[in-house]
Amino acid sequence: QKEVEQNSGPLSVPEGAIASLNCTYSDRGSQSFFWYRQYSGKSPELIMFIYSNGDKEDGRFTAQLNKASQYVSLLIRDSQPSDSATYLCAVSDSGAGSYQLTFGKGTKLSVIP
Amino acid sequence: GAVVSQHPSWVICKSGTSVKIECRSLDFQATTMFWYRQFPKQSLMLMATSNEGSKATYEQGVEKDKFLINHASLTLSTLTVTSAHPEDSSFYICSARDLVREKTQYFGPGTRLLVL
């Protein structure tokens, strides 16, 4: 049973601070890792994906992957109230051929003005 | 990013009726589309994987005769909820895998179904 674990939160950070979201996964065969943002009542929106160990930066977002520790994180710099949402970590075992995603239950982030 | 549309965005229907939801990839081709369901304050639950030109693969516990999936082209998959009941009321979301950007799934905006 593939599992993706996230702290459900809520994680509260002041505006302008760095928000750190964490995720662990159980399947060592996992190849691809994704972060989605989901606003209340909306569908998930892809923020970032990462395939290799290390950091990947895109604007205010940085994804970090450590396959040895089976850990992936998302840093949001200069957090804004508009970043308040639920962040879903998703993992894919592309070796399965279907590229199914296994989702965590999400971490709710609240950025306080 | 790639665009996935869903239609309708809202459905209210009587118990016992069937509802069809369309999922389209607008600017890319998708051999694989996925159908999810999300209840309030719950995580996404994968219902089935829809493969173009072949039968869908359903997750354990999802009734294939109740949730009919057709993936007739590289840009369109449909989910039909047959004989809907109030407990089928949920947020149904599709996603599509971009053939070019193989490892990435893009989500549609979702369809809210309310069965009275």
Structure, explained:
The complex is a heterodimer of chains A (113) and B (116). Chain A has no helices and 11 strands. Chain A has 113 residues and is mainly β. In chain A, a hairpin with an 8-residue loop joins β9 and β10. The model of chain A has no long low-confidence stretch (mean pLDDT 92). With 116 residues, chain B is mostly beta strands. Chain B is 0% helix and 52% strand. In chain B, strands 2, 4, 5, 6, 9, 10 and 11 form a 7-stranded mixed sheet that branches. The N and C termini of chain B lie far apart (36 Å). The relative contact order of chain B is 0.33.
Q: Which class do the helix and strand fractions of chain A yield?
A: mainly beta
* Residues in helices of chain A, as a percent range: under 10%
Flag low-confidence runs of chain B: none
| Distance between the first and last residues' Cα of chain A | 40 Å
Overall shape of chain B: it is: globular
Judging from the principal axes of the Cα atoms, what is the shape of chain A? globular
Question: What is the terminal-to-terminal distance of chain B?
Answer: 36 Å
What share of residues are in beta strands of chain A?
Answer: over 45%
Let me know the number of strands of chain B.
11
Main sheet attributes: strand count, strand direction, barrel closure of chain A: 6 strands, mixed
Helix content of chain B: under 10%
Instruction: Characterize the main sheet of chain B.
Output: 7 strands, mixed
Question: Proportion of β residues of chain B?
Answer: over 45%
Radius of gyration of chain B: 13 Å
Radius of gyration of chain A (Å): 14 Å
Q: Would you count the extended β strands of chain A for me?
A: 11
* Secondary-structure-derived class of chain B: mainly beta
Order of helices and strands of chain B: EEEEEEEEEEE
Average pLDDT metric of chain A: 92
Number of helices of chain B: 0
